[in-house]
Amino acid sequence: MTMPASGPQNDAGRQPVVIDTNIILDIFVFADAAAKPVRQALEAGELDWIATRPMRDELARVLDYPQIVPRLKFYQINAGDVLASFDRHARLLEVAIKARLHCSDPDDQKFIDLAVAGKTLLLSKDRHVLSMSKRLLAHGVRARAAM
Predict the structure, then answer these.
(1) Which residues form the signal peptide (predicted)?
(2) Range 15-144 classified under CATH 3.40.50.10540
(3) Residue ranges per domain, the chain?
(4) Per-residue pLDDT of the chain (147 residues; tens, 9 = 90+)
């Protein structure tokens, strides 16, 4: 699979990407068709998914939400499977310095901070993040809902 040229490549030639929690759920829980190219690129080693411990902690918390637990059971997946997929594919970095750009949703700020620090592709379906697309682009970040 050929990835679009969108941002710097890391030293291994893989495109760095920050992935928000909703997209992670689409990839590893809901098998959303729009997220399939992301999953394929991760499995092929074409993406360098960078994340932080607070991002993983947020995912663990979300996987325990009352509206998510029945979905996990429906898809015959458990939270440990999803977290193991996160651990297998994501490269944990230190928490990034707060970016000059501020998101109206404080829960999304950590994704923006890391994407700005790395000038990466930022995958998110969050309207707060996507509404910042032009401002993020000025800082070297392409915010998109899908690849």
Answers:
(1) none
(2) no
(3) 15-144
(4) 333 334 455 556 899 999 999 999 999 999 899 999 999 999 999 999 999 999 999 999 999 999 999 999 999 999 999 999 999 999 999 998 888 887 778 889 999 999 999 999 999 999 999 999 999 999 999 999 987
